[in-house]
Amino acid sequence: MTALFTNFENLPPEWRAGFGALLGLIIGSYLATLALRWPSGEGASQGRSRCNGCGRALGWRELIPLLSYAMRRGRCGHCGARIDPVHPVAELAAALIGALSLALHPGFEGLTGAIFGWILLVLAILDIRHFWLPDRLTLPLAALGIGASWLIGMPSLVNALIGALAGFGLLFVINSAYRALRGRDGLGSGDSKMLAAIGAWLGWQMLPFILLLASGTGLLAVLYGALRGRATKAGDRLPFGAFLAVAAWPLWLGRDALQNYFHAL
Predict the structure, then answer these.
(1) How far apart, in Å, are the Cα atoms of 52 and each of 9, 11, 69, 172?
(2) Sequence spans of domains, the chain
(3) Are 248 and 194 spatial neighbours (Cβ–Cβ below 8 Å)?
(4) How far apart are CA 235 and CA 76, in angstroms?
(5) Can you give the pLDDT of all 265 residues of the chain as single tens digits?
């Protein structure tokens, strides 16, 4: 296994990126199906993929990531029903995650980073669609982050453990204070668990930057909604977990450059 990763690391970055993109397309197709089926109690592997409009099982040509959606112009070739755009979005995002992870971080580290990004992608979709961050994803994500820190050493195991505890505790305290002042929750418990998982992957020092970027992403989303005529009201819910995901993975991707920058200060 070590020799396999060593040989892979020696490949040119564009080859690693191509492999990561191809792997991401395949995984993204599965992740899209998982995100769409799970909230209704179905599993991603429960039966063949089918059209949500007519229920017809899809042929292999209709399962080719991105290409099948483009060729059918986003509609079922049998009944003309609209295909959920989550499919091409998830496939493209997963391909980018795989390509960038393996191109910039070759070997085992790149693979773990891709897995981190792919799980964040599912969580973001579920939060945007259903305001749901399931424990069956956030808790294993935290465990994987701690395991990755033990195997790779970046962040250190102690740093990862502190990051997980600090990430959970920070949002828990913020929500408790909000509830005491307003009489209702301002954040879901899933947000705290998700930030705990992110803290395990990136370490406690990165938590302020994650929250800053997530808040900025949320503000941009609110402004975009206002420009589209969908103004956000004071009591409206926002998918903060999705904003955390958008902030966390790019920070993981560029963490080496960030650490070198801060060490140089």
Answers:
(1) 42, 41, 14, 39
(2) 1-106, 132-265
(3) no
(4) 38
(5) 555 556 667 778 888 999 999 999 999 999 998 998 888 877 655 566 665 656 566 665 666 777 777 777 767 666 766 777 888 999 999 999 999 999 998 888 899 999 999 999 999 999 999 999 999 999 999 999 999 999 888 888 999 999 999 999 999 998 888 888 877 777 878 899 999 999 999 999 999 999 999 999 999 988 988 888 776 776 678 899 999 999 999 999 987 777 666 666 5
Which one-letter amino acid corresponds to residue 167?
Answer: G
CA 34, CA 38: separation in Å to the nearest integer?
6
For residue 189, which amino acid is it? S
Residues in the chain: 265
Nearest alpha-carbon partner for 117 in 131, 104, 129, 132: 104
